[in-house]
Amino acid sequence: MKLKSLKYIAAAGLITLAGCTQTKVTQVESFPEYVAESDIIKSPNDTRQYRFITLENNMRVLLVSDPATQTAAVSLDVRVGSLNNPVSQPGLLHYLEHMLFLGTKSYPEPDGFNKFLSENGGVRNAYTARSNTNYYYQVVDGKLDESLARFSEFFTAPLFDKTYSEKELSAIDNEWSMRKSDDQFARMLINNQTSAAGHPIHIFSMGNKQTLSDKTDSELYAQMREFYHIYYSANLMNLVIVSQAGLDELAQLAKQHFAAIKNHNTPEPLVTAKGLTKNELNQHIYQKTINDIKQLILQFPYKIDNYHWQDKPFTYVHKLFNSKDENTLYDYLSKQGLINGAGIGMDHSYYGDNGYIEISYSLTDKGKNNKDQIIAATQAYFKLIQNQGIQQSYFAELQQVMHNNFINFNMPSPLRLATHLSPMLHTQPAQYIIKGLFDVGEFSEQQINQLLSQIDFSQMRVWHRGNDITATQQLTYADGQFDTQAISQAELKQWQQQAAAINLSLPDKNELLQTADATNADSAPSSATAEKLLKPTAIVNKKGAYAWLAHSQHFQQNQGYIELTLNSDLAASNIKQYMAADILKHLWTEATLAQTNAAQQAGIKVSVGEGMDKNLKVSLSGPTEQHLKLMTSVFSSLIELKVDERIFNQKKDEALAWLTNRDNDPLTAQAQKEMGSLIHATAWRYHEQAKALEQLTYQDVVEHHKKLLANNALNLFAFGNYQQADISTIMDTLLSKLPTNRQAADLYYPAEVKVSAAQSQLTAEHTDVAILQQYWLPEKSLKKFSQILTLNALYQPMFFKTLRTDKEIGYVVGSSPMQINQFPAWGFMVQSKSHSAEQIIEQINAFNQQFAAQLKMLPAAVVNNLTASIIQQINQPPKNIYQEMHAFLADFNQGNFEFDSRETLLANLQQVTLADVQNIFAEVTDPEKHQLYRVEVVGSKFEPAKVK
Fold first, then answer.
1. CB under 8 Å to 791, separation ≥6 — which residues?
2. For the whole model, what pTM was predicted?
């Protein structure tokens, strides 16, 4: 369970704080009570059926029938969130979210729902956002009816077991303790604290034990129940159910289980108070961060026109801002050496019916000292957009990309679909619930101008973020300091004058965009009439050049994924070469920004990055017409790359800051990195990397580049709409780009892991302790891995409940199966603000003894049902081409060219018995039979509490 900040492009209002001034009581917008499946506009590529109904209690329900799914998913969204928190109990809605899952009248066991789901291949979670609270889960489809019976009672007959109140408060307090040292969390609190006085955004939304407590005029538990009875009203609820059942059956299930939820006719109090008034604008805000960052943010108040939800003027502005074309804003600032990156974002409902737009820059050292130039250039560019940039041709490009994305809609998983759509039903008509995601409306100069008029450089807040900033105001609920200072008239005049002297250009026409419709005959899948390769097949297989191709069995669309790795052992040879490869990757990324951005805006995702051991790679996904041409162009950029010393120094500084900041990562992330360093020979620790990088020279990278091109192997994987001849041709083309003196190499893969026990302890600036321990078995065995996989599905929910809820040890409590090179292992992660590493280990060992006793009494049917549900999940037909290829790509990256890991796992799972689970638990927890790897990360400010 978590607190979440959601950003939607569709219009969304927010529930207000009870009794808050400047609120407007409104009824939920009136949408049709029933929308037939034929009226819900969906992509021709979407095989699901949809129907929208309204129950008699005025609850809105979207039904989704997917005959191919083996997994059902459910999401219920309540139109109440953290902006409803009363002043007397900051974080109350978060507390309510936690308390709801503690048993119901018919199913009183506090952890009964979790246990039921875990035994039936399911998971569940919830989040509290500013405007809504969302509860969601998935389960094997055959258990949908029973799951709905259990789930619906949370909204008709919850027990709110008071004996667990203190335990859930501990969980919330641990969650807060984890986040309070996070710079982004601190930034959110600074933003809230410097917003308009009296606005409910000031109330601490997460809560902790200090804010969530009994007070003279407010008893926590009673106020929580009162809020539940007021706001958990059917008329403020949306429900989405995704299942293989037919629509009629789903409609019956929805009525059967959810019609009993009471409708209190609670009106929707919408916050209309401005979050940013003139008193909060024209301000510099200085945040002293923990991490070494250099960031400049320009923040503008923004209010969307709710009556034109289908129009997306921000998407239009986003397109122009993000262009990397010659002499556009990004290109200008980058070539001036002022920025490492830039972005524009929007949250239109952050404050209720209003929010903000932000333009953010990651700065170089030069940029940090020339912020005025960056602000002026930004002002100049937006003035250029206003005067010349509102063009039908740009809009047509955007419209075409969105249309093609709609036509080639990749169906998300049932759970992702349900959780995405349930909050949207509050603000968007059901018939457009799918199409609306891709609808940009009609070209409207007025709408675009209306947005641009709100990006007013005389009415903004300028954020300065860095660890070298001096600030004096201390935050209450986070680590960090800030200060504010008024923007002077002299500054405004200076920015205006500088802007007038900066000449920028608008983006060029995107040549990658095709004028043909994504579904016409010319773009029909090229593999439709050719021989289908149902499993990756070697098209090129010679020393130094390897290429594999497979076609989709399930989708006949113009989509594909292609990945090329420049395979070499050079980066793994020593840490100096490893860091040279890292910088070379950044230089290659920088050199291809214009190409990758143009492709992205044409609906093609291009990713330039790294694979194992810093092997450079590029991947493309999406419509395939331009893939081979783009692959050649991006690869040629690497071959022809001229290492620029200025950019080298810039990227080196940026990488050093990133490595240094890893000391401030969440404790769990630090533990996982250290564990990797214990297991893998080339997983050098961050401080080791930083030391090597400090000594790295420009010439080192030049030499690394030459060596890499002189000795390597090209390794290519393609899946989807490609012909065998295409793959042969592209490999010939790519090979021709390499230097004539290049030596062909065999494929390199890292040395096999040698399982040998190891331990490590780290210290971090924190108040908590994290422990990660893994039991590795010393022999390869996919059979034993499948047994651990089944064991963990039984173990994890009980482990979580005991240590997290009953013992109140920490918010992060988890276990997971894993394997490397077919060596099986079982791992445990716990983070606590109250228990030392020794105490956590004692609790894990004590629980294992209890679990062993329970395992002896477990009915065989439980394991049989569980393995069946796991197999059912794995066998579920893919929802899109990328899900279909996932297992093949994983095998490719691990060098398993039999491409049989999925089939092998399924075969082993089918043989798992209760006796196997009992035996593997005994084996994997036996110190004589496992190799123990343990990492402890101890906060320097950790103070163990008195253990109850």
1. 817, 826, 917, 920, 921, 924
2. 0.91
